[in-house]
Specification:
Blueprint: E1 3-5, E2 8-10, E3 23-24, H1 25-32, H2 36-46, E4 52-53, E5 59-61, H3 63-77, H4 82-85, H5 90-100, H6 115-122, H7 126-140, H8 142-162, H9 168-187, E6 199-203, H10 212-223, E7 227-230, H11 237-246, E8 251-256, H12 262-275, E9 281-286, H13 290-293, E10 300-302, H14 307-322
Parallel strand pairs: 6-7, 6-8, 8-9, 9-10
Antiparallel strand pairs: 1-2, 3-5, 4-5
Length: 324
Amino acid sequence: MPIVATGFFMPMTTSVSPDALPLSIAAVERDTGIGKDTLRVWERRYGFPLPSRDAFGERSYPFEQVEKLRIIRRLMDQGHRPGRIVAQPVAALLALGQGSAGDAHVQSVIPEYLQPYLDLIKGHDSEALQTQLTQVLTREGLSDFVTDIVAPLVVCVGEAWVRGELAVFEEHLFTECITRVMRLGIANSPKPRHEAGPQVLLTTFPQESHGLGILMVECLLVQQGCTCLSLGTQTPVLDIARAAVAHRADVVALSFSSLMKTNDVLDGLAELRQHLPSTVTVWAGGQAAALKRRKLAQVEVLRGLADVSAQVKRWRSAALKSNP
């Protein structure tokens, strides 16, 4: 029996799984983040991927090859070079991904109290996930919620994604859920005392799209009585400096994930310092290797979330000395 939809008679068909449909080279580029030119070069140089051709002679990539390309992209994000991994079989890539996530004896051990959250993520029950997280936030308070639940859960989700145990959409849904809950905690926090300071501008550089790190720092700062202004992620360096001046920020706080290249971190911080008044302090935190290798001129490095409170105390102590 036909189904009427928007004025047209449409025959009833069996739904086709999106996994069964081959993708064009443009769709693969969007799906994996690997450029068309790169895909063509790999095809010639490494013999993978091996697309077929559609009726118009255009490249067509089966699902299995797209899945392997996703794994390759994850490994490249962890620092692996294409020449060493593209031609390897999927099993070898997955094993390599487990090694990238950490010590093989440690990384797979998930704290028992976090397992229910991971089960909800894998079960696609974002409503229940948000409800449980909100209840913990209400019970534990924002600071403990961030340090005891959010921070270790982000690590577990990231490791699961690297190992291929979570799909991109599952990781994205988790990120949106945890962001909403933390934003709720910030909105319900008491307004800071104006005289307490500092006023902190939070953001990331243009190359950094991950925002959970800077959001966790913001949660801890508002609990310390700081006034926070978040620009979100991927703000051009010159605009960060302009915003800091326009809003009379005392501190610019930046977050860098492990995917940030050393030169992007160091060059960006040096450029930012050139454009900022000397009275504005720069805090930099995260897992980027550049923050661990050397001391950065005129930049205070946050050695983890536990260092946020200490940095606030240092700033206030220095402010009292300069304005007795």
